[in-house]
Every structure is written in C-alpha cells, then in structure tokens.
Amino acid sequence: MNPLGVTHLDHCSVVVTDVAKARAFYGGVLGLREIPAPKEFDFVAVWYDLGGTYLHLLLKPHPDTVSPRHFCLHVADAAAARAVLRAKGVPIDETVTIAAADRFFVRDPDGNRIELLQWNRRYEPEADGRWAE
Predict the structure, then answer these.
(1) Fold adopted by 11-128
(2) Rounded to whole angstroms, how far apart are CA atoms 7 and 118?
(3) pLDDT in tens, 90-107
C-alpha cells in the first residue's frame, strides 16, 4: 500500500494557445466529450471527460516546448484509429513496437504529443518488462 493512498491518475493538463483550434482537434478530430470546467476558475480551461479520467486544456500565450513528453489515450482498435486519423489528415508517428500493444503518436495543433494505444493482452511486467538502466 502506498502511504498517500494514490488510486489512479485523475487528469493531465496540456497547454494550448488557440482554444478554437484545440476544441476542433480534441472534440472534432479525436471525438472527446467536453464538459464544463469548474465555475470557480477565473482562467480559460477546457475539460474533457475520458470516462472518469480527465484531460484539461489550459490556455496560455505560448505553447509548451515540443518534447517526447506525452499522455496516452486507450483505444479499442488502434488500426481503426489510425485509419480515421489519416482520413482526417492527421500525421501519424509510428513508434517502437512493444509485445503487448499496438500504439502510435499524433500531435495536437500546439505540438503536444499524444499516444494512442490498444492493449492486445494484459501487460506482464515480469515477462514483458525490464528495469531502467
């Protein structure tokens, strides 16, 4: 048991510079469901419900630095997701294949990196993993 009682990842936040473009990408292209941000906020934040985990878009004047940092969206069918995104003109960045999953990356209009992943079977750390060196 962890001493803080951490149970799961609640949300992640990404910086966006254009709310309309971000909404078109996250709601229109990815098909995520927007929900209202807390009424107490005195800043622009766009929230998406991912089935009990949330994505927060925070409006800032400058984008984050482009990096390998990312968040991951689980999909039921990675091949179908690739096809949908390609049909919408979204560039796909293939990556290292791992035994238990089919996965790839895309970037939002501000360059934020997003992994889309389909688990083909349960990840088995003892068989599939290795410790960082």
Answers:
(1) 2,3-Dihydroxybiphenyl 1,2-Dioxygenase; domain 1 (3.10.180)
(2) 22
(3) 999 999 988 889 999 999
